[in-house]
Write a structure and sequence with these properties.
By secondary structure, this protein is an alpha+beta fold. Helices cover 23% and strands 37% of the residues. It is built from six helices and ten strands. The strands form three sheets. Strands 4-5-6-9-8-7 form a six-stranded antiparallel beta sheet. The longest helix has 13 residues. The radius of gyration is 21 Å and the shape is elongated. It starts with 10 loop residues before the first helix and ends in a 7-residue tail after the last strand.
Length: 218
């Protein structure tokens, strides 16, 4: 009966209303908390959690397409767009010379106007000259690559890691510094096994659930 972000009554009020002991109530709340249905805020009480968005971790699906398909309004805000020289680690991932010119940009992704994801993307300038002329807030990056450059993403290698939000990331995502984030590092390839994108995406831990499909060992 309660909507997301609504505050639960106190334990004393709930136990009285539901006619159960405080011990039984706490056990029930613990079950709901473990299922991700509640959010406990120290010194402020317990709130109904917002439903989490599902991210299919084993499929290469554009963010906007994935969210729109689920009935959400996805949008983007360009935070940073600049030219850089490829550091050793980036050059190795993209198979370009060290110090080769690359584009680096960050986009804040929003769902229903709520910031939920901070994307960071690095791409070789030699392959995508004049990328800055295209509207990265209105268009999908993969749609731009296919339409304007004839590049179609075929697969990616990625890994996931739990991290804590820095002050900078927390401000953009409107969360508390130190809040849990899921970091997805990704290298995307064409059919020719040629890497063209290195992504470093930060998903809000309170808004996303990562799903994957597993098959039995043969």
């Amino acid at each position: 009966e309660l909507a997301p972000n609504e505050r639960l009554p106190s334990e004393r009020e709930l136990s009285k209303e539901l006619k159960v002991s405080r011990m039984t109530l706490r056990a029930a709340l613990r079950v709901l908390d473990n299922k991700g249905l509640l959010v406990r805020r120290t010194g402020d009480g317990t709130y109904i959690a917002q439903p989490k968005f599902e991210r299919q971790a084993d499929k290469l699906v554009p963010f906007t397409q994935n969210m729109n398909r689920r009935g959400y309004q996805a949008s983007a805000r360009l935070v940073t767009f600049e030219r850089r020289q490829a550091e050793i680690s980036i050059a190795s991932k993209l198979k370009v010379p060290i110090s080769a010119p690359v584009y680096y940009f960050q986009r804040l992704r929003l769902i229903n106007q709520e910031p939920v994801l901070l994307e960071a993307c690095t791409m070789p300038i030699e392959r995508f000259s004049n990328l800055e002329v295209f509207d990265l807030e209105k268009r999908s990056i993969y749609e731009i690559l296919e339409t304007e450059y004839g590049i179609v993403p075929r697969y990616s290698q990625q890994n996931l890691e739990a991290v804590s939000a820095t002050d900078y990331e927390a401000e953009l995502l409107r969360i508390t510094s130190g809040s849990p984030l899921m970091l997805e590092r990704r290298v995307t390839y064409t059919d020719e096994d040629s890497p063209f994108e290195y992504g470093r995406d930060l998903y809000r831990g309170d808004r996303f659930r990562f799903m994957t499909e597993m098959a039995p060992l043969e």
